[in-house]
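Field notebook, page 433. I keep forgetting to write these up properly, so this time I am using the form the group agreed on. The chain and the ligand, magnesium ion, are recorded exactly as supplied. Prediction of the bound pose follows.
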Amino acid sequence: MKKKLVYVGMAADFLHRGHINILKTASSYGDVIVGLLTDQAIASYKKLPYLSYEKRKIVIENLRYVKKVIPQTTLDYVENLNLIKPQFVVHGNDWKTGIQKKTRQRVITALNKWSGQLIEPKYTENISSSLIKKELSNIMSETDNRVSRLKRLMNSKKIVRVLESHNSLTGLIIEKLNINKKNKIHEFDAMWSSSLTDSATKGKPDNSSVDFSSRILSLNDMMDVTSKPLIFDADNGGQIEHLSFLVRSLERSGVSAIIMEDKIGLKKNSLFKNQKGTKQDNPKLFAKKISKICQSRLSKDFLAIARIESFILGKGLKDALKRAEIYSKAGADAILIHSKEKKPNEIFSFAKEFIKSKSFKPLVAVPSTYSSVYERDLIKNGFKIVIYANQLLRAAYPSMMSVAKIILEKERAFEADKKIIPINEIINLIKND
Ligand code: SPV
Ligand code: MG
């Protein structure tokens, strides 16, 4: 007699005895088909798994309780259930509440169509998920893994959300902060080491007076206490002869991408109104720098991102598109199209044309001046990375100024107390474990 089919959906990033309990129970009902959640499916509602789909698949399909593994491309089971029409679905009873409650309801409705049954073994307690998570964060901050993570995020998420970090404390905000919005976890995916905010933190102008060694020291501080990927703002990359050493240092520190802008001469921040005296590089020479990065990197997962400054310097769309073609052919993995307009029209007009090209590469936006743009509109227009490039420093400075002023005015600190967090909170923020 043909055995009954049992469907089990799982992410199975780190297999533990809770998973085994589910699969063992499932196999007592018939042949087990595991719907293994793809990276995209998992990233749609929580963190990207440590292991890629292919690696997780190898583990699961070799378990003796499992007959077959198929991809489950969404958090929702219904598509796969309609395809297989299993007599049983098995899932731990922990999904009755929380983020997966709706998914469970839809499974029940689908199963009802062919009188299938949902089996919910008791969730395995005491496997100490906090212990696993702690281990996981150690593994995630391993250099190789961190370098590759940005590329994996780009392949798995609609848009990779990046926030500026200028010290370890801001790195920790990016690392830990998340909010639950409509049953999806929203968080920042990566850190941006900004030349502007790193220089400002050191009290220096954004004109490359803070050299790369010093920039790398600051980012190493952040790397010590975080596990998320970091994108490095390399200004124009410096001299081509020095680039391979910069790439080597960045890769060794666990950086995932370098962004290099096509300007020459004394560096000026792109958001300054007056760009007089700033020149764009010859595109062919800049392309050589991109190729140099590609040749120097040890891992193909370390991304070379070319930043086009045509709009900043008033050169217009045609120039930007011509450069995008050249940079893409030279090996750029993505293109940052910069703009200091109040609206994103300029960058969207660029995206609309570039998307038609055979050389199209994922686009990066830095919405500092056009901050009203929503992520959903960037996604619609072909953008894959959004960098919020300076907001944390802009938040910290006025707050510190106002507290310093209060102390000066009142000649005591009491009045400032209600504007600042208690000392206890600072102590708890940085735990020594
Ligand atoms: C930075 O954050 O340093 C940047 C982005 O390069 S911008 O300030 O817009 O030039
Ligand atoms: Mg910069």
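OBSERVATIONS:
- Residues 5-132 form a domain with the Rossmann fold fold (CATH 3.40.50.620).
- The chain has a mean pLDDT of 93.
FOLLOW-UP: compare against the apo run.
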